Amino acid sequence: MEPNETAPNADKLDRIIDARMKLKRRFEEAIQNTPSMTDEKPLGSGPPNRHGMPKIPKSQTVTKKWPVLDLGYQPNIPLDKWQLAIDGEVEQPIRLKWADFMALPQTEDVSDFHCVTTWSKLDVPWVGVRFADLAALVMPKETATHVMCYGFDGYSTNIALEEALKSDVLLVHTVEGEPLPLEHGGPVRMITPQLYAWKGSKWIKRIEFLAGNRLGFWEERGYSNTAYPWRNDRYS
Ligand SMILES: Nc1nc2c(c(=O)[nH]1)N[C@H]1C(S)=C(S)[C@@H](COP(=O)(O)O)O[C@H]1N2
Ligand SMILES: [Mo]
């Protein structure tokens, strides 16, 4: 058997790891200084979560159910038509087909989901690809500060890179051991456990790196640019 049939191509993996480490160093301090890592008087209740914030942000109610929020249209993208474009302020724009996406390093994580409409779903087990691993593939230029994420339904949302590059930000395809259901953004959506959930685009189709901030769909309509749950930062 050829070596590259038994394991991911070692050179390629090394390049991803190098790029990931470089990017991590560049943003590490900014990540460590975000409100959900450092706020001294975070708003909320319950025991500390893994980054030291109260498990339940202010004015949130825990639900076991999982409400569905969308723009009234759930785009159904067959896997053989699915593509994810990553472009903008990057050295190596790419377009991933389903098999390319699934061949990337996969991350499992359990995280909380806080919706701006005041429900929180706690300890959700996800599987997907880290945003930071995708960023390492395309190599953001020095000028990149934010990303705009776009959904197949016409949705968009903007995020600062120091939030998007956190290790719990994933593009997930599996939840609770099952393929992500269509109504929750399957085949792939983004999750942003340290920001309100509208920052995670369902049915994600494009990530555009930006050399400055721009407003997404809800941000243009008065939702907060920053969306910090432990600051009750919902509307601007
Ligand atoms: N593409 C797309 N992504 C989206 C939305 C949307 O309407 N379209 N709604 C956002 C909002 S407001 C929330 S709270 C979460 C809801 O995810 P859920 O429907 O899986 O609970 O998705 C976010 N991502
Ligand atoms: Mo929302």
Concise overview:
The protein has six helices and 13 strands. With 236 residues, it is an alpha+beta fold. Helix 2 crosses helix 5.
* CATH homologous superfamily designation: Oxidoreductase, molybdopterin-binding domain
- Please bin the fraction of helical residues: 10-25%
CATH architecture: Alpha-Beta Complex
Number of domains: 1
Uncertain regions spanning at least 5 consecutive residues: 1-5
Bound molecules: ligand MTE, molybdenum atom
Q: List how many beta strands DSSP finds.
A: 13
Report on the biggest sheet. Answer: 6 strands, mixed
Specify Rg, calculated over alpha carbons.
17 Å
The general outline is globular
**Helical stretch count?**
6
SSE run: HHHEEEEEHEEHEEHEEEE
Backbone structural class: alpha+beta
Mean pLDDT: 94
> Which strand-content bin applies to the residues?
25-35%
So what's the CATH class? Answer: Alpha Beta
Fill in the CATH topology: Sulfite Oxidase, Chain A, domain 2
Distance between the termini: 58 Å
Indicate the multimeric state.
single chain
